[in-house]
């Protein structure tokens, strides 16, 4: 009798459907135009508290003013890319002009940082800029979701814009230049974490998706 009941139990267990694990959704938060003093420090504090890594696209002239913040970004395990030295549009620059913007910025990066990405100001790409990126071994990183934090400057509206439109593999554009941006970034992390998203650097997102970067090529997302 016991053997019969055991067989019935085993058969019933086999009939129970197994729910498959939902695939993890990944996004990369990226911050342009910094570093910028107290805004960057506030953001780094919040990222550290949440154990989240982000990608910072830095301007050379800002690194000159905020060297300690740039070093802290690197020391805390975030990714650093190049956003040009002057923040002038690279769209119409010659290759030599764009190369100078890259090299002048790279010379100021914290020791040991080897950037993978160039993000041209405004995401405006030109032939000279792409050739310069290729010559320096850099891929061009734009974005697939613009938070518009630079224009909206309202943390709740920025958060709703991102959370309402995000997709797996997105590269999200933000700026560490305003309190509203910092507040929104941390709220976005909290909201999307609840929805099962994980935040990674742009390079980590490339690796997770098995993508092969080509220097001088433009990338916007990694779905």
Task: Please outline the helices and strands.
Layout (H helix, E strand, L loop, with lengths): L1 H13 L10 E8 L5 H13 L4 E4 L1 H6 L1 H9 L3 E4 L12 H12 L10 E2 L8 H9 L3 E3 L3 E2 L2 H4 L2 H9 L7 E5 L3 H16 L2 E3 L2 H7 L9 E2 L4
Parallel strand pairs: 1-2, 1-7, 1-8, 2-3, 4-5, 5-9, 6-7
Helix pairs in contact: 2-9, 5-6, 8-9
Question: Care to describe what's here?
Answer:
The protein is an alpha/beta fold. It has one domain (23-219): TIM Barrel. It has ten helices and nine strands. The protein has helices spanning 2-14, 38-50, 60-65, 67-75, 95-106, 127-135, 149-152, 155-163, 179-194, 202-208, and strands at 25-32, 55-58, 79-82, 117-118, 139-141, 145-146, 171-175, 197-199, 218-219. The strands form two sheets. Strands 1, 2, 3, 6, 7 and 8 form a six-stranded parallel β-sheet that branches. A three-stranded parallel β-sheet has the order 4-5-9, with helices on one face. Helix 2 runs parallel beside helix 9, helix 5 packs across helix 6 and helix 8 (155-163) packs parallel to helix 9. The longest helix has 16 residues, at 179-194. The N and C termini lie far apart (55 Å). The model is unreliable at 4-16 (pLDDT under 50).
């Amino acid at each position: 009798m016991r053997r019969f009941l055991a067989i019935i139990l085993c058969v019933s267990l086999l009939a129970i459907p197994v729910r498959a694990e939902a695939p993890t959704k990944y996004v990369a938060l990226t911050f342009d135009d910094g570093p910028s003093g107290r805004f960057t420090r506030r953001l780094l504090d919040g990222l550290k508290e949440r154990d989240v890594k982000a990608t910072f696209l830095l301007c050379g002239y800002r690194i000159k003013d905020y060297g300690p913040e740039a070093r802290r970004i690197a020391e805390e395990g975030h990714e650093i890319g190049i956003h040009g030295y002057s923040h002038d549009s690279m769209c119409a620059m010659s290759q030599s002009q764009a190369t100078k913007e890259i090299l002048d910025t790279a010379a100021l990066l914290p020791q040991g940082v080897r950037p993978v990405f160039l993000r041209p100001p405004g995401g405006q790409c030109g032939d000279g800029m792409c050739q310069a990126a290729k010559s320096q071994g850099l891929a061009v990183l734009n974005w697939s979701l613009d938070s518009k934090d630079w224009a909206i400057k309202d943390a709740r509206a920025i958060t709703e814009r991102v959370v309402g439109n995000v997709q797996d593999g997105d590269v999200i554009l933000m700026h560490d230049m305003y309190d509203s941006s910092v507040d929104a970034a941390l709220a976005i992390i909290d909201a999307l974490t609840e929805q099962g998203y994980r935040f990674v650097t742009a390079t980590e997102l490339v690796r997770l998706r098995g993508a092969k970067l080509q220097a001088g090529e433009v990338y916007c997302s990694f779905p």
